Amino acid sequence: MSELVTGEAVALELRPARLPSRALAVLLDLAVAVAVYVAVTIVLVASTSSLDGAAQTALTIATFVLVLVGGPIAVETLSHGRSLGKAACGLRVVRDDGGPIRFRHSLVRGLIGVIEILMTFGVIACIASLVSARGRRLGDVFAGTLVVRERVPFSSAGFMPPPPPWLAGRFSGLDLSAVPDDLWLAVRQYLTRAGQLDPRVGWAMAERLAADVAARTGAPVPREVPPPAYLAAVLQERQAREARRAFGGASAGGGAAPVVPVVPVAPAPAAPPPAPVTPPAPSSDGRPEVSRDVPPDGRPGTGFVPPA
User: Do the Cβ atoms of 19 and 82 come closer than 8 Å?
Assistant: First the structure.
């Protein structure tokens, strides 16, 4: 990684492109430029066959300058440092302070590139790139530019480890309002890069940061809690409070629905079993005797006797 300082005194960590990737990008750009130059030359030769030799020579030189020199300059200026080959290789041309290039940067790079790339077949550019600490060729040195990689391989440096489970809610009563934002940023940067530091250096940084946070909160660091775990737990507590403040207590608490108590209902009493019906005894003439309490249609009697 190369550290660049912007005009606002902000340090940028960029990865300069090395010779293999830059050479591949230049070959792709030259292949496209030569193909366009050959096509344009064929069209001009077919359309200017009636001209004399001097005019054809002038057109050939103009075509060479416009296509092989002016074309890359225009493409690099309009794309802010990303030609076709650089876009395919994940590269970009930037200024020394990390900003986008302008026309003057592309013009200086293109004019010097004619000498160190086209006329010497890239020998000067390769030597200059190998000698330079940032892999810059002469065009980059005179233009004040740098070719950097845009597609950096994924790294787990940005992963912030969570605190131990036994520290969950341990520091919920701390007053974190006095801790400044720059100290929180330092704690977060330490936690994300703790795995890349030397163990002794990382432990010393954790102790210093934990002491600074404890001095602002007014509560000392518990002796049984390691400084890295203390920082992770305090930072998680701050993030939880910010989430509750932004989304409300219900969202921060998980949004669980209230529990409605269920009141048991007593079962209804069972109906008494129906009384057994005794069949009527047969009469003297052999026909069954109909009870006076049961009407002829078989419905049970109500006990009401109609008047005579």
Answer: no
